[in-house]
Amino acid sequence: GVGEIGWITSIYLVAYMLGTLGGGTLADYLGRKTMLSVSVLLYMFIDALTAVAQGFVSLSLFRFLTGTGTGIELPVGSTFISEAVRKDERSWMISLMNLGYPLGYLLAIGTFGLVSPHWGWRGMFVASIFPGIIVYLIRRRVLESGRFQRTLQQVKDGALTRDRVTIRTLFRPQYRRDALMAATYWVGNAFTFWSFLAFIPLYLVKVRHLDTSTELLYLGAWQGFYAVVPMIAGWLAEIWGRRPAAIFFALLAGCGVWIMVAVPSGMPLFIIGGITYGSIAAPWIISFTHSAECF
Fold it and tell me: Alpha-carbon torsion 264, 266, 268, 272, what sign?
């Protein structure tokens, strides 16, 4: 039921948070490349094992473990890119990284159409392991962040000191204010993003009374907005600055949600919903860059 879906989504997000904290910290010791490889190995195997879930408890357990793996991606991937590209290209490049999400979403919808009629939802989870294997093999060929390697060498040589548990550094006086502000806007980003992402399918079906085919058409087409709007946001963040661009798209997303529930179904809902979907993702992308630059 809807209540169980809500609980399972919440369990996944709690694990996502823990994966973010743990993965980001371990990446300071083991490296960006290593943790990105660990994350995809973890969630692709657990995601495939979800096919054997028999009820609410086992499904919740598998989603918790999957959330832990995917959560590692959040801080490590954006940090890796921020360290690897020029300062004036960070937001733009992270917005390019974001293209992986809508492309993956479209791949999932297409795979669902092919797999589900024959093997059901369990077959869909099993099929998810194949793109995971491809991602893992690609990541093993990626070079480690040069900045991380230089910093690690400085620590080994004694030229640079750091806390034994690096997350403690955020509570030092010189970082405390920025850390609190970053945590606050990330809570806002995550609440808005996951609230929309988790419940928009139910909204389209239960409130707007769209059939499954039309719902999937909306969700699939909206991935185009999800790809384009954050790219525009990343470009504007390089011109306007991180904060003005993030505030603009946050306001646009907020207005979009209110307008979306008021417009009639059909093309108005499709257009406003797509713009809102992309605008919700935009501050998320800009915040990746801003967080990396603050520390």
Answer: positive
Q: Would you say 170 and 176 are in contact if contact means Cβ atoms under 8 Å apart?
A: yes
Count of CA atoms in the C-beta half-sphere (13 A) of 111: 17
Sign of the Cα pseudo-torsion (171, 177, 182, 185, in order) = positive
* CA 134, 150, 180, 253 torsion-angle sign: negative
Q: How far is it, in rounded angstroms, from Cα 34 to Cα 76?
A: 10
Longest Cα–Cα distance in the chain: 65
Q: Are 70 and 45 in contact (CB under 8 A)?
A: no
pTM, full prediction: 0.82
Residue 291 in tokens = 């967080």
Chunked into runs of 10 residues, the chain (295 residues) has average pLDDT values of 78 89 89 92 91 90 91 87 85 85 84 85 89 90 89 88 81 86 85 85 91 89 92 92 93 94 94 95 87 79
